[in-house]
Amino acid sequence: MTSDGQTTEELLQEIESLKRLNKELLDTFHETERLEFSWSGNLGQWFWDFRRNEVIFNPMKAGALGYTEEELPERVPFEFFTDKVHPDDYDRVMDHMRAHLYGELPVWEVKYRIKAKDGSWKVYQDRGKVTERSEEGKPLFLKGIVFDVTEEERERELLKENNLTLKSKMKIDSLTSLYTRSVMLFELGKSVNKAKNFEQALSVILLRVDNQTTYEAEFGTIVSEEILKEIGHVIKKVVGEQYLAGRSRETVFMVILNDKSAKEAFEVAEAIRKEVADTFFTIPRKVTISAAVSTFEPNQTISELTEGTREKLMNAQRQGGNVTVL
Length: 326
Prior knowledge:
Elements: H1 8-36, E1 42-49, E2 54-57, H2 59-63, H3 79-82, H4 87-101, E3 108-115, E4 121-133, E5 139-148, H5 150-171, H6 181-198, E6 202-209, H7 212-219, H8 221-239, E7 244-247, E8 252-258, H9 262-277, E9 289-295, H10 302-318, E10 324-325
Parallel strand pairs: 9-10
Antiparallel strand pairs: 1-2, 1-5, 3-4, 4-5, 6-8, 6-9, 7-8
Helix pairs in contact: 7-8, 8-9
């Protein structure tokens, strides 16, 4: 018998009654939570008795991972969820939690991947706070709320991939599959600075189709563009990944050769010129190109380098074309 006159049996019955009442109140709370806070991904609130290491939570939190209420232990410890956190996220999540428990952060807010029952990964956004501490400042009780943001993360990653693809496409000329003029000018500026600062060689090749205006007048714009497209493929084939190649102007191509002498650049230009001469084009004419090679001088500006090379290229074409000049 207890001090207030209750028998042990009566005390046990009262405890059971309180447990049933607590369960009914909790179920009602969870149902209300579903109705009142039906935000996208909301999995409800959680409560953590730190001393007993017992977590009380809305069944939606475990349900989103594929677990039924019957599959959960009678008392769910904190580790039931943390043990399922992705290995690459675990230390970060635990560090954040400890920082809050020790009073270094005002709240615990973290996003992490968590393993579902079927082996797939969900993404949870969790936010919580210590609501009660001991006189010594040790945590006693925490509460928080968790969201399933898996779909939002997938959409964000897809958007990121699409942005990267779009950015990549913006760098590539759609006709020739080489870099655009803006990219080439940017890269040339970087190469010039590198050549100045590290006293390295830098050579530039400009190439242009001989008689391009004649082809356009005789066969039309579409055929003319097909010629440029094919030459772009030839240039890409010859230079590969070794050098940067792109369009300098509408019908002029540029190749930037870092740390290469004029002689080495001349050999590359000649290889391109010869490959073009041996390429079959869908017009009843032999298509050729001319090329000009220049090496950067420390006292030059970028404009002087490119304009000087362009003058060489124009002179080569005035003399009949199908030639590489230094």
